[in-house]
Amino acid sequence: MEQKCLVCGLPQEQPPWGEDGKTPSFAICACCGTEFGYHDATAKAIKAQRDRWLSSGAKWFEPRKKQSELLWKSMSLEFLRSSLALKMVVLMLWKH
Ligand SMILES: [Zn+2]
C-alpha cells in the first residue's frame, strides 16, 4: 500500500488511506499538514493542497519531525560517504 503523503511525498508510518487504500486514517501529515481522507480525497484536492502548501513556503507542519528527518538524512549521507558504501556500489557495478 502507498505509504507516502500524496501531497508532499513524505513517507508515513501508517498508510494514509489504510491497508485497503479505502479507509483514510484522517491523520495529519507532519510535513505539509494534509489531513488524509480530507485534503487528499480527490486529485483536484491534492493539487489545491499542494499549491497551498508550496505557496506558503513549503513549511514543515511539525518542525520537530523535520529535525529527526534531517538527522536521518545526514546519517544516510554519512553512510553513503563511507568507504563501505563505496565498496558496495563498486561490487554491484562489477556484477552487472
Ligand atoms: Zn504531506
Would you mind describing this structure in some detail?
With 96 residues, the chain is mostly helical. It has one domain. Helices cover 47% and strands 0% of the residues. It has three helices and no strands. The longest helix is centred in the last third of the chain and has 19 residues. The radius of gyration is 17 Å and the shape is elongated. The model has no long low-confidence stretch (mean pLDDT 82). The structure holds zinc ion. Zinc ion binds next to loops.
Helices, strands, pairings?
Layout: H1 43-55, H2 63-81, H3 83-95
The structure holds zinc ion (ZN).
How does the overall form come out from the CA principal axes? elongated
Bound molecules: zinc ion
Structural class computed from helices and strand pairing = mainly alpha
Number of helices: 3
Low-pLDDT parts are none
Radius of gyration: 17 Å
User: How many domains in all?
Assistant: 1
Number of strands: 0
Q: What is the helix/strand order?
A: HHH
Largest sheet geometry: none
Task: Identify the notable features of this structure and list them briefly.
96 residues, mainly alpha, elongated, binds zinc ion
Short description:
The chain is an all-alpha fold and 96 residues long. The protein contains three helices and no strands. The chain starts with 42 loop residues before the first helix and ends with a helix.
